[in-house]
Design a protein that fits this description.
- It is built from 10 helices and 9 strands.
- The protein has about 325 residues and is α/β, with parallel strands linked by helices.
- It has a single domain, classed as Vaccinia Virus protein VP39 (Rossmann fold, 3-Layer(aba) Sandwich), CATH 3.40.50.
- It starts with about 25 loop residues before the first helix and ends with a helix.
- One of its GO terms (cellular component) is cytoplasm.
- This is Ribosomal RNA large subunit methyltransferase F.
Length: about 325
Amino acid sequence: MNQPNPSATPDNDALHPRNRHRGRYDLAQLAAAWPELAAYVAPNAHGNDSLDFANPAAVKALNRALLKQYYGIEQWDIPAGYLVPPIPGRADYVHYLADLLAESNQGELPRGRGIRVLDVGVGANCIYPIIGHREYGWRFVGTDSDPVAVRVAKQIAAANRALAGAVEVRLQPSATEIFGGVIKPSEYFDLTMCNPPFHGSAAEAEAASRRKAHHLGTGHAAKPVLNFGGQANELWTPGGEATFLWRMAEESAHLRHNCYWFTSLVSKKDTLPGLYKSLQKLRATEVRTVAMAQGHKVTRFVAWSFLTPDEQQAWQAKRWAPKA
């Protein structure tokens, strides 16, 4: 049986056509952008530069290099143990959301600060606001129930001129609410996005971590270290992904006129039937499932709207039409 190579540099040819991270990483170029990365780059068995993706420090250094090289982010750091996101996959979600907006706007990609996006669970890494603003000029409100994540995300937004005035971060004070307490009645968002915690318990999350560690070749430790990290609220929630998304759907129905598209990543195919049933019961006017291929992995997001065709047209004319 062939064992996976933890130092292999992934090939991202299946990513969205506008994704800057298609193809293999140019590690020499990235190390020039962020010299710290050079310490983690070494030749593999074939003599090609490679990175040990089982090493959390290497993954963080890679992210710093990618953010500086492609998005102009000079200051980015997160506390130990917090989620270090795989940037190519995160960028794919943003680009497919841009396509979703374009399909609702006669094929034109709505750009600029007039587009407002709510990122549910922004995390300490603040990755979606960084990519969304730098690629499309959108403004973001990020929410999180973890005070440390909120503080660090605010620091990232404040420390980088490239994000000036584009990112607001709010603490979600309730452990049981998603939109409640953070969206004001008079606020409107063109999109919401979310990468929900998909495990149902700490034990389930740890078991998944062990499987991943084994795949990366680090499975002999008593308690494996996740190369991408993650706090409890980033990895699991009571009832898992299905319960979280049921709550999100229920809350979204109360804000049906405050947002054009509600969206969320859905990790498990088994979650989809229950989510579709909930959205049908809540009388969503449109539901779409968008598949995204990332290497050998296929993931997806579900988008839904409660706006009628007339309301959609009025929204487009008011918020997306080019200003004279």
